[in-house]
Amino acid sequence: MSDKGVLRSIEFKNDHNYSLQLNRWYLKPIGAWPLTGATNVAVRVIVLLQNFICWSIVCFIMIPCFLYMVLEAEDIQSKLNAFGPLLHRIMGSINYLMLLNRRSDIRDCIQQMEADWRLVGRNDDREMMLQQARLGRLIALIAGIIMQGGTLLYSIAKAMKTVTIVVDNETLTMYPMTCPSYRKIIDTRFSPTNEFVLVVQFMSTFIVGSSIVGVCSLAAVFATHACGQLSVLYKRLDELDKEDEKGNYLAKQKMVDIVERHLRILSFVTRMENIFHNASFVEVTGSTITMCLLGYYSIMNWANFDGAKIAAYIIVYVSQGFNLFIFCYIGEILTEQCKNVGQAAYMTNWYNLNQSTARGLVLVILRSSKLIKITAGKLFQLSIATFGDVLRTSVAYLNILRTMTT
């Protein structure tokens, strides 16, 4: 291989790794990063052990919390206080399960991304793809900071002030739990059980947070990569009539490349939809309920004005809204960009093309006329309008909840 070929190989690998670096950091600690066929047995065993430990930690917190909410909590206020953190862990667990079950599909998308980077032959194409890769990386970074930071801050704010209780005429000081536990299974009033469960709760918060961030960041990176490929496709369509002036054969080859590239992009987007439609449904429904509960918690704590708790509620609210916005933005931009391919083909100076070459544009226009949708559970389309609907619905539920509990 020539020196130029070696440098190009290193360059495309660096670009590919750059676009997925943060996703790898989020998912490897919880054993959710897809393994390649060349991975040795020792690594596979370690990943299985990671999965087992993560599930054990999350279930150790979720099951006693659910039993507390059903069997021990006596008033609606206590049940609602436990339901919010429990719902967050349920959402994270579903996302974690999706990441594990869809690992092969995610690996296929990553391999297609790698192939797309390898096929880049022009610097201007590379710059367009890198611009979108930087956007995807930025979204992944913000999602990680806001979601992990918000949930950890919420847990810290909850445990920051110790409470004093009396048990059998004995005064005890304990850290309040974000997820209360059913006492007949785990009695967190006594030390060192209290401190141990508190540490495990922080670990479970990190695991479910990493799962949610991993799903959102992967969706963002995949979507921006598709947008980068579509930008290259627009440029190819714009240059098509210029190529026809240089020679009929060259224009035909460019037309073949355009059709094949278009089909590759649509295949990638379809695979994305199959991977993330369940996770996006969980995000939409879970965010609606969670934002409603966070608003309720803020109102209930406003009288005592616990600044740390209210600040934590607001940060978690923003993080939930941001994650939901990511999915809705992805759905909006991909639908619009895929539709614009047909318009770009129609606006091409097709009358300057050879007749046989111009017929290829009909294929592109016909395929683009079939609307590409990113959906939540294949029930409804994700768009900016969906984001507004969820915000309005969460406020409506908040008003109902306040009416029922006051």
From TrEMBL:
Main localization of the protein? membrane
Q: Which GO terms describe its molecular function?
A: odorant binding; olfactory receptor activity
Q: Which Pfam families match?
A: 7tm_6 (PF02949)
- One Gene Ontology CC term in the entry: plasma membrane
Judging by the UniProt lineage, the source's domain of life is: Eukaryota
**UniProt keyword list:** Cell membrane, Membrane, Olfaction, Receptor, Sensory transduction, Transducer, Transmembrane, Transmembrane helix
**What residue ranges are annotated as transmembrane?**
52-71, 83-100, 138-157, 196-223, 281-299, 311-330
- How does this protein lie in the membrane? Multi-pass membrane protein
The yes or no answer to whether the keyword Membrane is present is yes
Cellular localisation: Cell membrane
Matching InterPro entries: 7tm6_olfct_rcpt (IPR004117)
Q: Which GO annotations describe the biological process of this protein?
A: signal transduction
UniProt record similarity statement = Belongs to the insect chemoreceptor superfamily. Heteromeric odorant receptor channel (TC 1.A.69) family.
Q: What is this protein called?
A: Odorant receptor
